C-alpha cells in the first residue's frame, strides 16, 4: 500500500485530498462530516471581517452535458456569511479533535495592511496549520477590491503576501486566480512576497448559461444574473495548464503547489500531482456526490501507485512536468497513423465524416460500411480516435521513424539550403 | 352462444388496465437520456432499415436539443403515420435491429419510443407542420382508408390535388383501426391520428363504399384523373386437410382471428366482447399473437397458440413471441392441428382441437378457436389488373398495368407492415403527381 502522506509547505496530512475553501467547508458540522469521511484536510471557507457579507438566494448554475449533470458548476456565493467569532470557535474545536489533519484557514479582508495584520493573529490562535490567501474569488468580492481584484495585480499579491508573512510564522499559501493572461506573473509575485506555496486554480469568471424565457443569465436572482466562478470537471484542462506553467517556471524555483480544478477521482488527482502539485483540493465533486468519494480517491490513488511501483507522493510529483515542453521542442519527425480494428468497428461512420468534413479526408468508405484509413492522407491528428464511440477500435500507431528527430526550434536554427 | 364463451369475464378496472398502452410513453427525462445514446451515425443503417426512410439520427438529435416540434416534423415529413408506426412497427427487425449499438452489444437506441415522444408532442398540440398547395384541379380517387391510402391521400392533398377516399368499412384506418391489438394503439389513437392527418384539407372520405368490382373501378377511372388502390387483404386463409374441408372448421366457436380482433377493436366497452374460457389460436404471425394476447386480456383462462414450425420460423418477431410467452400464453411449436371435435352437450360447438405436436397426437380442450394462418389479396377487381404472385403487380413507383391506376399496401407485394404501406402510399402519390403534372398530361 503506497504511502499517501502529504506535505504542502510544511502542512501535513495523512492523504493529499483536501476540501477546498468553499461551501462544503462553511462550518463545523460539514467539516466534521468530511474529516470523519477521511479527507486529509480542509481549507475552511474564507473568513472575512465583521460584519459578515450577505449572500444571495440562488447561488449555483450548472452545465449538464448530454445527460451528465454538473460537468461544470458556476457559483455566485461569496465568502463566509457568518460572524468571525463563530468561525474561529468552530475552527478551534475541529482542530483540537483532528490534530493529524490539515486545517487551513482561508482569509480575505480589505486590501489594507491593518486589516490583514489584525485578522491573522486572531485566526492563528485557533491552532490552524496555515493560511490560504484568497486572491481568487472572481465575483462579489472583487468589486469590493478584494479577491480577484487583488490577485489580478501582481504588485498587490506580493504586497499582501508580505503583510501576512510578517504577521505569522505559519505556512502561507497564496491562492491564484485563473482570470489573468499570464499566471506566472501572479505566481512569481506570491513567491517574491514570501509565500510558502501557491494553490490554483480558483474559479473561472463565467456566465454558465442564459435562461431563454426570462432572457437572464443563470443562475437567476429575481430575474437577473451575474457572472460567477466556474469550476468542476470542465475546468480541469485550464487548471492543469496553469499548474504546469508554474511548475516548470524557473523563477518559481519549485515553490510547493496545491492543485485544484475539476478533480473528481484519484485519476485527476494523479494528473495534478504528476504536473507538480504536492497535494490537491476538491470541491465540486464533493458537492455533486457527497464526502464519501474520498474513499475511492484514496483507494484508487494507492492502487495505481502500487501498480506503478511508486511508494510515496514524492515519487509521482512532477514526473510529467519534464515532458511538458514548448511546442517548438516537439519532434517534427514523429509520425502516428490511425488504425481501425474492423472486428471492433460497429459501422457508425463518425470517423469518416469527422475526417471527411473537418480533417484530412483520410478515411474511406468501402462497401458494407467498412471504413478504412488512407495511410498516405492520414496526418495522425487523432480526431477519428476521439469521435469513435468504441473503446480501442481506432488506435494511433506510431510509425517507424524515417527521419532523425528534429524540433521546430532546431529546424529554425539550421542554415537555409 | 356457447355457455363458456362469455362477455364480461373481468371487471372494468382490470379490462381498462389490460387494454391500456402496452408500453408507457417515455418521460421527458428518459427521452433525453435515450436520445443522448444515439451516436448520430454517418450513413446511418437505421435510416436504410426504415421503409419510409425517416432521418432517424436527425430527429433524435432534435429531441436531444429539446426541439420536439422539429423532431416531429422530421419524422412526419417522411412518414405521415409516424405516430402509429412508432407504436406498431416491429422495430427490432427494422430501425432498432440495424442500430449500431446493437452491434456494440449495449442495446439499440429505443427509436420507436423516441419517435412516439416526438410525434405525440406534435399531435397533442395539434401542430400542422404541412400546408396544402393551391388546388391543381386534379381529382384522385383512393380506394381504402388504411395506412397506404391515408399516406397517399395526405401526400396528394399537400401537393394541391383533390382527394376522395372510398372506404368499405364505416370507419377509416384499415388495420390500424380494425387489425392491430388495442393495447398497441391505446385509447382512440388511430382515429385521432387520422383526424390530425385530414387537417391538411382537401381529402374527402366516403364510408361504407366498397369498390369491389371491375365495373366500380371503371367508374372511378372515368370520374377521376387517377386512382390509387389500397385494398389491403380481403381474404383469410382457411385450414386445410388436403383437398377436403378441415374436419370441424364450421363448428361454432371457430372463427378467423381477424374477425375477433376487429370486433374487439370496434367495441367501445371491452366487457361486451365475448371470449372463451379455453382459447386456441392457430398460427404464428402477429395476428395470431395479437389474438392470443387479447383473448387472454379479456379473461380467457387458458390460451394456447399452435404453430406448425419452430420459433425461428414464426413471422411474429421474437419480441412479440417472448412477450406472449411471458404473458401467460402457451405456444406449442411443431404443432399441426388436424381436426376439431364437437361438444358432446352442444354438438354444433367446438370442444377440442386434435393436434400432432412433434408428431405425437394430443387433444387440447377449447371452447373458442381463432384461425390466424394468413391473409391474402382476394382480387375483387378480377383480372382487370395484372397480378404478380397473387397480388396487384406494380412498378417501383406503384403504377399498375392500367393507365392512371396505382396501387400499394398489402394488396401489392412487400412486407405486410403499416410502415411499408405508408411508404407505398407516399411513393405512389409522388408518381401520381409527377404523371399528372407532366406537360400535356
Structure description:
The complex is a heterodimer of chains A (417) and B (441). Chain A has 417 residues and is of the alpha/beta class. Chain A folds into 2 domains: 6-323, TIM Barrel (Alpha-Beta Barrel), CATH 3.20.20; 327-413, Alpha-Beta Plaits. Helices cover 31% and strands 21% of the residues of chain A. Chain A has helices at residues 28-37, 84-97, 113-124, 148-151, 154-167, 183-192, 236-247, 266-274, 284-289, 293-308, 313-316, 350-358, 383-387, 408-413; strands at residues 6-8, 11-13, 17-19, 41-47, 60-65, 68-75, 102-107, 130-134, 172-175, 197-200, 204-206, 210-211, 216-217, 228-231, 257-260, 279-282, 336-340, 363-366, 370-373, 394-398. Chain A has an 8-stranded parallel barrel, surrounded by 8 helices. Chain A has a 4-stranded antiparallel β-sheet with strand order 5-6-14-11, with no helix packed on it. A two-stranded antiparallel sheet of chain A has the order 1-2. The mean pLDDT of chain A is 96. Chain B has helices at 12-18, 28-36, 45-49, 56-64, 68-78, 82-88, 95-98, 100-104, 111-124, 147-158, 175-178, 189-198, 214-223, 257-266, 286-298, 318-325, 418-437; strands spanning 139-143, 162-166, 203-206, 226-229, 235-236, 254-256, 278-282, 302-306, 330-332, 335-342, 350-357, 360-365, 368-371, 375-376, 387-388, 391-392, 405-407. Chain B starts with 11 loop residues before the first helix and ends with a helix. The A-B interface holds A 66-67, 346-350, 352-353, 365, 369, 389-390 and B 32-33, 36, 39-45, 64, 100-101, 103-104.
List the helices and strands and how they pair.
The complex is a heterodimer of chains A (417) and B (441).
Chain A: E1 6-8, E2 11-13, E3 17-19, H1 28-37, E4 41-47, E5 60-65, E6 68-75, H2 84-97, E7 102-107, H3 113-124, E8 130-134, H4 148-151, H5 154-167, E9 172-175, H6 183-192, E10 197-200, E11 204-206, E12 210-211, E13 216-217, E14 228-231, H7 236-247, E15 257-260, H8 266-274, E16 279-282, H9 284-289, H10 293-308, H11 313-316, E17 336-340, H12 350-358, E18 363-366, E19 370-373, H13 383-387, E20 394-398, H14 408-413
Parallel strand pairs in A: 3-4, 3-16, 4-7, 7-8, 8-9, 9-10, 10-15, 15-16
Antiparallel strand pairs in A: 1-2, 5-6, 6-14, 11-14, 12-13, 17-20, 18-19
Chain B: H1 12-18, H2 28-36, H3 45-49, H4 56-64, H5 68-78, H6 82-88, H7 95-98, H8 100-104, H9 111-124, E1 139-143, H10 147-158, E2 162-166, H11 175-178, H12 189-198, E3 203-206, H13 214-223, E4 226-229, E5 235-236, E6 254-256, H14 257-266, E7 278-282, H15 286-298, E8 302-306, H16 318-325, E9 330-332, E10 335-342, E11 350-357, E12 360-365, E13 368-371, E14 375-376, E15 387-388, E16 391-392, E17 405-407, H17 418-437
Parallel strand pairs in B: 1-2, 1-4, 2-3, 4-17, 6-13, 7-8, 7-13, 8-9
Antiparallel strand pairs in B: 5-14, 10-11, 11-12, 15-16
GO molecular function, one term (chain B): glutamate synthase (NADPH) activity
Protein name (chain B): Glutamate synthase (NADPH/NADH) small chain
EC number (chain B): 1.4.1.13, 1.4.1.14
